Amino acid sequence: MKDRNQQLIGHLEELRSRAIKTVLAFIGFLIVGMAFMKPIYGWLIRDLDMKLAILGPSEILWVYVMIAAVFSLAATIPVAAYQIWRFVSPGLSPTERKVTLRFIPALFFLFISGIGFGYFLLFPIVLNFLTTLSAGQFETMFTAEKYFRFMLHLTLPFGLLFEMPLVIVFLTVLGILDPAKLKKSRRIAYFLLIVISVLITPPDFLSDVLVILPLLLLYEVSITCSTIAYKKRASQSTESHAGQENLVLRSEKT
Fold this sequence. Notes:
The chain is an all-alpha fold. The protein has helices at residues 2-35, 37-44, 59-88, 94-101, 103-134, 144-161, 164-173, 179-184, 186-200, 205-253. Helix 3 (59-88) runs parallel beside helix 6 (144-161) and helix 7 packs parallel to helix 10 (205-253). The longest helix is centred in the last third of the chain and has 49 residues, at 205-253.
């Protein structure tokens, strides 16, 4: 019992150390983002036909922090993934370590792809649709805080949700999930994804549809990726078992 308590304390200390490293990386990237915030801000509003308004002296600081935080989050993802990998790697086989280590760059690129999908495709469509509704009836004026909050609501969730296929493959490689479980829980997953899409989008039908369809497609892609990973894992397990049997037979003959 004493040895188990010591092991648990050691794991908790290691987990705390890796969490601190991740937080420090996030803070460091946040500072870098704030240092380059003016050109980033200028690039984000390059296609806007109007100047954004601010309602108080602290609002622009809040906007800068929001944008820098997204930049910092994207840059911190590989660091956080590597710290998690280092924490769980002692319990993995050498093959699983190599396979899971390759996931770290993919996590970053999938997050950037999700942000890009939301920013370059979804955000302009929804923004144009909503501004068209008010054309000729209202004087359109955006505050910086509401404009960028609206942008983040349509982009940041996709950065996180685009990680879903890779996370499912990771859990499949570890033997926690398999394609049969994913197919069996498809209805529940669809319901949850629809609820998520309604919560993260503005209250209009077009936004909901434009978010729901990619999320459902992502789940189906996740099932396909899980199937491939499951078959590969099963074949490797069969080959390993066959190799062990051959070694046993050889030892018995000798």
